[in-house]
From TrEMBL:
It catalyses: L-threonylcarbamoyladenylate + adenosine(37) in tRNA = N(6)-L-threonylcarbamoyladenosine(37) in tRNA + AMP + H(+). This is tRNA N6-adenosine threonylcarbamoyltransferase. It is found in: Cytoplasm. The gene is tsaD. Transmembrane segments: none annotated. PROSITE patterns: GLYCOPROTEASE. HAMAP family: TsaD. Its main location: cytoplasm. It comes from Niabella ginsengisoli. Keywords: Acyltransferase, Cytoplasm, Iron, Metal-binding, Transferase, tRNA processing. InterPro entries: ATPase_NBD (IPR043129), Gcp-like_dom (IPR000905), KAE1/TsaD (IPR017861), Peptidase_M22_CS (IPR017860), TsaD (IPR022450).
Length: 345
């Protein structure tokens, strides 16, 4: 079967074509205008989706060498995400489904991030454990079958991507700062500065304390990590401190985020005795995490799986592969289905 999938949950408008579980095209339009505001502005995001969606779908069809008449099903991201953004993809998919008389498939975005690992030919075997690290979520997911997942741990406050972006903002870097921390970290010494490892129960994560620790560290221009009401530095001193130590700060911050993630994840993988481990979500594009994750697998004799870069951050390819498994199970949605900002369909 040939599936057209649409992703519009946040600030990328994306369309993909999947034929019998193989992704033929994965076209992504990223909305650059949010950078100037330091974050995604929901109203602007939905308007940009409206402008982008028709050309983005056209290009996805062209790249795959397919036309509307070839489609057997239309899939879209139903939840979670920004409601105005989700609505654009949902209404587009429903209209096309109605016009072409083809079934509609509703996909959960977080489930799709995990299943990005089923896109390549080399696939993990079930059950596998996945560390999903994105802009809004940080989860350890036990995946027993393509559509059977259990969240066994998650963040109790900020997501890993949020931690990257907030730390980057404190360093004066533009949004989204995660990829920039990755870039500068490559030149830096990860052991130069020590940031605390937060305490969270079980397989859960916490990142808000790290962000605060880094704020105080920068306010003290590296002189101390202890909070003082009256910071003994001037704006100029702090700026100079960041400028002359940027690579080492980025490398140290990145190392701490990675160790927080992998310490919890490896404990879960040992306890559950899984053989195959995966990462997913925007932060799985981080080069330090990809390397540390691979080393963790080698050390413990686990098979590691990491999606290609284009399938880490938001993309319709992952929606399409999830829809493929839903189609095999005949899990179709009715035309009155509504998108939801949170929760499962
Ligand atoms: P969610 O999937 O939870 O709804 P989202 O869709 O906004 O959130 P993604 O698109 O999956 O999130 O990921 C975006 C996040 O990934 C951002 O926080 C961004 O900074 C981070 N990110 C992307 N590339 C890198 C990188 N190389 N290093 C670190 N973080 C990165
Ligand atoms: Mg995005
Ligand atoms: Fe996402």
């Amino acid at each position: 079967p040939t599936i057209l999938a649409i992703e519009s949950s946040c600030d990328e408008t994306s369309a993909a074509i999947c034929v019998d579980g193989e992704i033929l095209s994965n076209n992504i339009a990223t909305q650059a205008m949010h950078a100037q505001y330091g974050g995604v502005i929901p109203e602007l995001a939905s308007r940009a989706h409206l402008q982008n969606i028709v050309p983005v779908v056209d290009v996805a069809l062209q790249k795959a060498g397919k036309g509307l008449q070839d489609l057997d099903a239309i899939a879209f991201t139903q939840s979670p995400g920004l409601i105005g953004s989700l609505l654009v993809g949902a209404e587009f998919a429903k209209s096309l489904s109605l016009a072409l008389h083809k079934p509609l498939i509703a996909v959960n975005h977080m489930q799709a991030h995990v299943l990005a690992n089923l896109i390549p030919e080399r696939k993990p075997s079930f059950p596998f454990l996945c560390l999903t690290v994105s802009g809004g979520h940080t989860q350890i997911v036990l995946c027993k079958a393509p559509l059977q997942m259990e969240i066994i741990g998650e963040t109790i406050d900020d997501a890993a991507g949020e931690a990257f972006d907030k730390c980057a903002k404190l360093l004066g870097l533009p949004y989204p700062g995660g990829p920039l921390i990755d870039k500068y970290a490559k030149e830096g010494n990860p052991d130069r500065f020590q940031f605390p490892e937060p305490k969270a129960q079980g397989y859960n994560f916490s990142f808000s304390g790290l962000k605060t620790a880094i704020l105080y560290f920068l306010m003290n221009a590296g002189k101390s990590q202890v909070y003082k009401e009256d910071f003994a530095t001037t704006d100029e001193e702090r700026k100079q401190f960041i400028d002359s130590n940027l690579a080492d700060i980025c490398a140290s911050v990145q190392k701490r985020i990675i160790t927080i993630l992998l310490n919890k994840f490896s404990k879960a993988a040992k306890d559950l005795d899984v053989k195959d481990i995966c990462i997913a979500g925007g932060v799985s594009a981080n080069s330090g995490l990809r390397k540390a994750f691979t080393e963790l697998g080698e050390k413990n004799n686990w098979n590691t799986f990491i999606p290609e870069f284009q399938y880490c951050t938001d993309n319709a390819g992952m929606i399409a592969i999830t829809a493929y498994y839903k189609l095999l199970d005949q899990k179709f949605a009715s035309l009155d289905i509504q998108p939801a900002a949170r929760g499962f369909e």
